[in-house]
Amino acid sequence: MSLLQFVVSIVLFAVLGFGIGFIINMILRTTWLPVVLVIGVVVGALLYKKIVPGPWDAIILGCGMAGTVVSGWTIQTLRKKGYRMF
Fold it and tell me: Potential cystine with 21: which of 9, 34, 40, 42 (Cβ 3.0-4.6 Å)?
């Protein structure tokens, strides 16, 4: 994997994690459910495929998880500030 692919993958997974987590939070009105879902999907995929992720894969998946956690914090902050649509 080249450095450019690695950097693009980090940004892509973080943005996708944030976006999907934000949408799930808005639809289901739960704050931390997307984080639990991401953990379940990642662990399930790794166990099903029976692969051990390399350091590059772990960093990329961690950035996706970080995006999901940031979406939870964002929704929580918006709710505290009075935005009831979330």
Answer: 34
For the whole model, what pTM was predicted? 0.83
Question: Rg of the Cα trace of the chain?
Answer: 14
* Contact by Cβ (8 Å): 13, 64: yes
pLDDT above 80 for 1: no
| Helix/strand/coil percentages in the chain, nearest 5 | 80, 0, 20
Q: Rounded to an integer, what distance in angstroms lies between the CA atom of residue 1 and that of residue 9? A: 10
φ, ψ for residue 80, nearest 5 deg: -65, -30
Show the beta-strand stretches assigned E in 1-86.
none
